[in-house]
Design goal:
Elements (H helix, E strand, L loop, with lengths): L1 H42 L4 H7 L9 E6 L3 E6 L3 E8 L3 E4 L41 H9 L7 E8 L2 E7 L9 E2 L4 H14 L24 H5 L16 H8 L24 H12 L5 H13 L8 E2 L13 E3 L1 H12 L3 E2 L2 E2 L3 H7 L15 E2 L13 E5 L3 E6 L4 E7 L5 H10 L3
Antiparallel strand pairs: 1-2, 2-3, 3-4, 5-6, 5-15, 7-9, 8-9, 10-11, 12-13, 13-14, 14-15
Length: about 425
């Protein structure tokens, strides 16, 4: 009997040690599930059952149990050992709470413009008349688009040529008004705000980054340009498979703009490319400091870019302090993501108004030193080329699980693909290009 008791005691101690060792991981898992559930249900207006069956169904996130609470709250628990909550705030999206006080804290929200339901797409939201191009092989194009649904888990594809929608397809449960998370495509939105601010002569990206805490060490030499190119030399661990800088930032931090700021240099400035979501959120913080009030900061992203080009479906989510999560959390319809691509295809000119200098489109598509021709200023590039059968001057916004806005200047094409898994991008894009002779 004593042996049995000792065995049970040892088993209990071992179980306790395992839980203690993995407790931070449980917080990340529950945090991801709660945040994703709140955004999917309350922002994108999907059901809890659909969200659990599609977006939260992969390991290890699928060990969390999700429920909905009062006042637009999502509650996720891992084996009953740890529970996280996420709340939805109108205009700001969903955010993980860190204390009970967060649940009812006051907040500002951005002022939004109304959708243009008079002007045809892309400058408004009225359906186009539908121009038939003699040089387009529509059969091949539609077959290509259809080929990446099903096993490739695409949710939406929109192909635009000469400002006209050539092909458009949605998975079951999705349609043209469905908001979809762009993940790191949000970084390209953040970059564009800098292009607009520079065009308005409110800053220059060649200037030193205005971070007070860096002024007494070598970090004072980091420029905004270095940050935009992810080439600051700052230490950062962008690993989503473990507890890392990025997972702690997204699921445990109140103010995400400060996490990269405290990191030391681990490489040479302008010669140490290192992909960092912390850098993108630091950039969001730099944008915040361009404005006297938080309301001005919240409004600017919409009045000068998002609503300006009719991306009225887009919602940029914030952290608990109200700063935009410029690395990861922009939601929009596939058509509105396409409008963003068209802005770059037209080099910043939107229906006759120049939102950023034409040279900015070239700037974001200029390779970052030591990135091997794959990265520009918060955009991905094909200079290497990554995709052998696609023009080298293509550049694109890129997000987790294959969220993409491809911009192909020579072909006058913008292609949007959003989904739940990566695919064979080279074959897909090659076939689209070949369908337009």
């Amino acid at each position: 009997m004593k042996i049995v008791k000792r065995f049970l005691l040892l088993l209990s101690v071992a179980a306790l040690l395992i839980v203690m060792f993995n407790y931070p991981k449980l917080s990340i898992i529950a945090g991801y599930s709660a945040k994703n559930t709140a955004s999917s249900v309350f922002l994108a207006e999907r059901s809890l059952a659909f969200t659990d069956a599609t977006d939260n169904n992969f390991s290890p996130v699928n060990v969390a149990t999700d429920n909905l609470g009062n006042n637009k709250m999502a509650i996720s628990s891992v084996f009953g050992l740890l529970t996280r909550k996420a709340i939805y705030r109108e205009g700001l999206g969903a955010v993980l709470t860190l204390s009970e006080e967060d649940e009812n804290a006051p907040f500002l929200k951005p002022k939004r413009a109304k959708s243009d339901n008079v002007t045809p797409f892309p400058y408004g939201n009225v359906p186009q008349k539908g121009i038939i191009f003699a040089n387009v092989n529509y059969k091949k194009l539609n077959e290509t688009v259809s080929s990446i649904f099903g096993k490739d888990k695409s949710r939406a594809v929109v192909v635009i040529y000469k400002d006209q929608i050539l092909a458009e397809k949605y998975a079951e449960g999705f349609e043209e008004n469905s908001k979809i998370l762009g993940w790191s495509m949000t970084k390209s939105i953040t970059s564009t705000i800098f292009g607009i601010l520079q065009h308005q002569k409110k800053l220059s990206v060649s200037n030193k980054a205005p971070i007070k805490s860096w002024q007494k060490d070598a970090r004072k030499n980091i420029t905004i340009h270095n940050l935009l190119q992810m080439n600051s030399g700052l230490e950062w661990d962008e690993n989503y498979d473990k507890i890392s800088d990025v997972t702690k930032m997204l699921f445990l931090e109140k103010d995400m703009t400060k996490v990269q700021e405290i990191k030391p240099l681990s490489g040479n400035i302008n010669a140490s490319w290192n992909y960092s979501s912390g850098t993108s959120n630091l950039l969001s913080g730099i944008i915040r400091n361009q404005f006297e009030t938080h309301q001005e900061y919240l409004d600017f992203w919409y009045t000068n870019l998002i609503d300006k080009i009719g991306m009225n479906s887009m919602v940029l989510e914030t952290d608990l302090t109200g700063n935009y999560v410029g690395s990861s959390y922009a939601w929009a319809t596939a058509r509105d993501w396409a409008k963003f691509g068209l802005l770059y295809l037209h080099k910043g000119n939107w229906n006759g108004e120049q939102l950023f200098d034409a040279s900015w489109a070239e700037y974001v598509a200029t390779p970052t030193p030591t990135s091997d021709g794959t990265y520009g200023a918060q955009f991905w590039l094909n200079v290497k080329p990554t995709f052998q059968d696609v023009p080298k001057n293509m550049f694109y916004a890129d997000g987790y699980q294959g969220q993409r806005v491809y911009i192909l200047p020579d072909q006058e094409l913008v292609v949007v693909r959003v989904g739940l898994a990566n695919m064979d991008e080279n074959t897909f894009l090659k076939a689209i290009i070949e369908s337009i002779q």
